[in-house]
UniProtKB/TrEMBL annotation:
This is Probable membrane transporter protein. It is found in: Cell membrane. The keyword Iron-sulfur does not apply. Belongs to the 4-toluene sulfonate uptake permease (TSUP) (TC 2.A.102) family. It is a multi-pass membrane protein. It comes from Nocardioides lentus. Keywords: Cell membrane, Membrane, Transmembrane, Transmembrane helix, Transport. The chain crosses the membrane at residues 33-55, 67-86, 92-109, 158-175, 181-204, 216-233.
Length: 234
């Protein structure tokens, strides 16, 4: 089980190091398949730790003004997510979140450009708080909003958001009595392959043109939703 999870988080960290998100793309569905009892806790711990490593180098282009709206807005989304985890099955939550992300990715691919302003930042924060707490896939709502920004700002802003948002989600689950100690232990064991994936991404980052980052962001969002949808339906 640990070997499979290690490979999944390595690949996820590699993708996240290149485009700003992706750890949940492989980590969440694989964990749900081989160790469903660890969801969503173990991914939340990794989502909290990974950006701290990336911010050691990439911290100059953080969009603090946007974070000032998205992070507080995550709180009501977390509250809704904690309630949803207690009331609904994992499969039902997975399907609903996957369809939501797929719809948003499709709409913004060519036809709709979501403006980066106060109302959209708050909405993205609420939705991300809900999806991140229920399925550990909290990045797409905010990533879709920032898809037209420079790659360095996408990566650094999402990194800070994941740190703060992950901490809030973990706190919400802890208050709801749904946080497991074993998940934290497994997350520590998976720290090495996660960091290794991020370091590999740094070696490859200069080879990825800036023009390819936006399609990659939307592709990762859509792929994460598809994987989550399939794993929830099976």
């Amino acid at each position: 089980m640990l070997v499979v999870l290690a490979l999944a988080v390595y690949a996820g960290a590699l993708v996240q190091g290149l485009v700003g998100l992706g750890l949940g793309l492989l980590g969440a569905p694989v964990t749900a398949l081989v160790a469903p009892g660890l969801m969503p806790d173990v991914l939340l711990w990794l989502v909290l730790a990974l950006p701290l490593v990336s911010l050691v180098r990439d911290h100059d282009d953080v969009h603090w003004r946007g974070l000032a709206w998205t992070v507080p807005a995550r709180l009501p989304g977390i509250a809704l997510g904690v309630v949803a985890v207690a009331l609904f099955s994992d499969d039902a939550l997975g399907v609903s979140v996957a369809l939501m992300v797929l719809a948003a990715s499709a709409l913004t691919w060519r036809s709709v450009r979501v403006p980066l302003r106060r109302t959209t930042l708050v909405a993205a924060g609420v939705v991300s708080g809900f999806t991140g707490t229920t399925t550990s896939v909290g990045g797409p709502p905010v990533a879709i909003l920032y898809q037209h920004r420079e790659p360095t700002q996408i990566r650094s802003t999402l990194a800070v958001y994941f740190v703060l948002g992950g901490a809030l989600s973990i706190g919400g689950l802890a208050l709801g009595g749904q946080l497991q100690v074993v998940s934290a232990v497994v997350a520590v064991l998976l720290a090495a392959p996660t960091v290794l994936g991020l370091l590999t991404a740094r070696l490859l980052r200069d080879r990825v043109p800036a023009s390819r980052v936006r399609p990659a962001v939307l592709g990762v969002c859509a792929a994460s939703a598809l994987v989550l949808l399939v794993s929830s339906l099976l």
